[in-house]
Each structure stands twice: as C-alpha cells, then as structure tokens.
Amino acid sequence: MLTACMLPLRMLGLLMLMLSLCDADSICPTELNPLTLDVPRVIEKYGASVEVNCTSTEADHNGMYWRIGNNDSRVIIGESLISQSVSLSEWNVTVECRIMLNETHECSKELEITIYQNPTVAVFPVNRAVEGTLFELQCNITDVAPVQNLFVRWFKDNQTIRTDNFTNTTTTPVSESSTLTVNISRAEHGAEFRCEAQLDFGPHGPQLPVDSEIYIVSVNYAPEFKNTSEDFFVHEGDDVTLNCDAEGRPQPTFHWKHDGKKLSDTNNLNITRVNTSGTYNCSAINSLGSITKEIHVHVTMNIPAAPAVITTPAVITTPEPYKPRGCPLVLTPAKIVCFVELDITLYKSPDIVSVSALDSGPVMVGTEIQLKCDIINVTPVQTLTVRWYRGTDILRTDVLDENRRIPVNMSSIFNFTAERDYNGAEFKCEAELQLETNRPDLGHNLTSSPYTAVVHFAPEINEGTYTKEVNLDGHVTLNCSAEGNPLPDLHWNYTTAENVRETTRGHQKSLTITGATSTNAGFYICVATNKVGEVTSTVTLKMKGQISVFPWWLLIGLIVIVIVIVVVIVLKHYKKLGRYSFVLDKANHGSDIPMAPQSNGTEDTV
C-alpha cells in the first residue's frame, strides 16, 4: 500500500488508463486520453494542405504514429510530439493521431476536417415576365460543398426578400437551386433581382467570398392608349398630324385605316389639305394584345356675316288716302313705294359638339373632374343653351349670354367630384339654339358623343370576413374575389400544408383543402392590392366532428377530496362536543384518582 502511494502521479494515470481499457471494446475514455491536437478542427478549401501537431501528456508509451485514411505512418518511439502534413485532395479523408500505451491498447485523437468548395451562381428566368402574372427566377448553384453550410439570399434593388438554406448532409460537391416567385407589375420594369450564394461556417469560421449574379427584369404588357378617343378641329384646306399615342412592351406596331382602307403603318399619320370631316382608326398591336381607337377630324368653315336687319321695298296700291304702317305720310290714292324694315335673325346650328377631360387619364375617388363641352361654329350665341347629362339624367344647364351674330366657337365647363359609381359612367353635353320659330324640323340641337369616366378606387373584397367549418378528413374551398380599379392583385397568407392547393380562376383566387386535419384549422387571410390601396379579409377555419371528452376522472377525484375534507371537519367538531364525567375526590371516596373525561359515549351523573 505504501509502495503504491509513492508511485509517480503519471504512472497512476497510466495504470488507471490501462485498467479502463480492459473492457470488451477497449474504449479510451476522453478524460484519460493523453493526446491533444493543436489544431483540433480544420476548415480548408479542397486541394489545400495543412500541418497538424499531435502532443501526448504521457511520455511512457510504445510509440506514436499517424493514420491517414487506411494508411499508417511509421511509429515514432520516445517522443511526445509528432507532426504531419495532410493533403486535402480527397473529400472523405480521415486523419488520426494514435499512441500505443502497451502491446495491446491504443488511444487515438481524430482531426475534425471540413473541406469546402465555393459555389458558382447562375440566374435565369423560368418564364416570361408579363404584367399581372407570377414571374419566376431560378438561381442555380453548382459544385458547392458542404451544402448544409450554404445560404442563398435573394435581393430586389439591394433589399433582402428571401433566404434559403439546405439540409442535405453530404460532404461532397453537389448542385442546388433556389426559385423566387414574384407577382410582377410594370412598375418593376428595370428592377434588379440578385441571387447571392455563400458558405457560412459561423462567426469563428473562415469568412468566405460571395458569388452572385444580377438579373434585370423586363416586364411585358399589352398596348395601352393614353386617350381612347380624340377630336381634332381644323379649317378646310389645312394640314393635320394624327398620333396613335400608345405604349406597350414589346413596342407595339401601328396600323391606320379610314373608311376601311389601309393608310399607314407608322405611329403618326399626316393628312394634307383636309377638306372633309372623317373618322380615322388607329390600331396598336404587340404579342400580348391589340387595341384600336378612333380619332375624329372635324373640318370647319367660316360663314360670312349677314345683316341682322334688312330694308326691303314694299309696293302698295291704294284707291283713297291711306297711311300705311311704317310710312311717315298719309298717301293719296295712287301707286306708291314705301320702305319697311324687317327683323331677320340668321342662325347656324353647331358643326360639332364634343366632350373632353381637361386632365387626361384616370382620376382617384374624391378628386375633382373637369369636363369641357366644345361647341364649334354656332350663332347666335345669346340663344345657345348647354345641358350636361350623366346617362339620361340632366346634371346642369348653362345659358350662354353673349351678343354675337357671327359663327363662333363656344365652350362650357362642368366640375364634379369623382365617386366610385362614376367609373364607367357616360357624360355628354347637348347644345340647343332657343329660336322663336314654328319650324321644329330645322333641328337646332346637337348632342356630343359620350365621355366615359375612368375612376380609380381601392379594392373591396366581396366575401368579407367570415368563419367556416369543415369535417375532419373533409374537403373545403375558400374563395376570395375583389372589386377595384385598377383590378386588384389577390394573394392568400396562411400556414402552408401539403393538402392545401391554391388556384386562380378569372378574378377569383381560391384555396382548396383536401383531407382536412386539425393542423389546417386557423386563420386564412386574403389580401387585395392595387395602386390605390390594400385591404384584407380573414377566414377562420374551424374543425367540426371533434367530440370534447369531459374529464370524468377529474370530477370523481374532486368529489372524493371534498368528501374526505367534510369527514375530517365533522370528526374534529365531534371531539370538541364530547361528554365529560367527574369522579369524587379521595376525601369522599377514598381514591386519589382525579376527574377524567368519559370517552365511552354514555351519559354519566355526578
């Protein structure tokens, strides 16, 4: 016993180690392993070389050596430090430092090795970017390892919009992909979408470079006119240039027609020496659609002024003295000539009556719309009345009070506040000459072509917020549609599941849940968005058919506890109310027994 106590401490450690290695598996416990690596973990690029040192705290051993893969290096005896250069040219290489404690037992320390290869990124579109559709970009990441340390980030104009990582545990190079889906609009034309890929080994690992690629999106949309109908007023013999004024992507081509005849395939149409009024049709066409608008050319002529009062001779024959009306003297019987003034009004009905908006394009709900009614080449103005209509309802009547007796161009302005119901409403004006005549067939009134108002307003979801129930393993469909101008974009926010499918039909977006489970219960939020605003509605999905099991065992347990408490209280109360008997002292009975309580429950007397 004394001899064992005098052994060096390191020999005791070795002895304990050898004893611990006497089990069936010859395991070397971590706390007794004498080996340490000065670089316990290596994170290096494929093909690199690393230098590793192995140190033993136990100098009394039979040798140290390296095992690389299935190959062992030569054994070094009498040293407590050995070094090895390792080439990382094999993806699954293993490196161990080993020590022979005796002829039968060894300990080892394995080097943690992570071999990496930086990713290469390529971005390309999966489909064509068309306004109002889902546009997909795919980012391909090739020859990257280890993929479980790969992070892929998507940016839109330098703002992070998505991050992906991967759970594959393979250590050799693989190729992965990440897909970004965007509800694209023309406002995103020219936007930069960037995909970045980087291996991330944490704050203490190497900071590796980022590989990225940018895709600049070009959003396509069907042609659109800035004005759907136009009117040009020119004098006879003048030249006029008509502009189709349409935009779209791809750039549209143009076609002009007049009276069914093809005129030109350019954006502008030049007409020289116009002498008749007419309507010209312009069509704008690209691969996504075609539109056509009418341009009306109105030719006007100046009418020379005419006298408002005409003096004309009147021949009067009278057999006796007579003073005709309009003659200053009494006439003797004779044939005379007398001049009489006749009051004559010359009128001209308008050549053209048209309505246009002072500010072209759509307006927002609550803003003011200004419409202008142009009345071309009309006289006399003091008899001109202008009526404004929405549909068949008269909105306002203007009487133009100007003393002009030659044909002129006049106008009337009508202001009103845009309301949602006005979207698509037709406004027109009517010009009428209020002449004192018995000739209604002369047609003194003329009505303009209608102006169709375009009013933008925020979305309103038709279904609203509601609750729906579904049986377990049943099927249910949640619908969402909205009204708005422009037409709203719809999307659902919900917890994704394999049994939930999203479909679009017309302007309605639906969620179909098949084989419903309890995990499908919850909130499903429909979001409708346009450039005026955004609204949401919530559908609460509940499961029915689930019978609540009442915890009868809990109720029974509570009843038993209550009964026990009552019994205990009653027993305590009974003891407090117990009967007592008294025993006479020894002077009277010859006994030294003091009085004591009677506990047999019978009544005693004294």
TrEMBL record:
Annotated transmembrane regions: 550-571
Superkingdom of the organism of origin: Eukaryota
Domain Ig-like: 119-198, 223-298, 350-447, 450-542
SMART domains according to UniProt: IG, IGc2
Signal sequence, renumbered to the chain: 1-24
InterPro entries: ICAM_VCAM, Ig-like_dom, Ig-like_dom_sf, Ig-like_fold, Ig_C1-set, Ig_I-set, Ig_sub, Ig_sub2
PANTHER family: INTERCELLULAR ADHESION MOLECULE, INTERCELLULAR ADHESION MOLECULE 5
PROSITE patterns xrefs: IG_LIKE (PS50835)
Organism the protein comes from: Champsocephalus gunnari
UniProt entry keywords in alphabetical sequence: Disulfide bond, Immunoglobulin domain, Membrane, Signal, Transmembrane, Transmembrane helix
GO molecular function term, any single one: integrin binding
GO BP, sorted A to Z: cell adhesion
Coiled-coil regions listed: none
Full protein name: Ig-like domain-containing protein
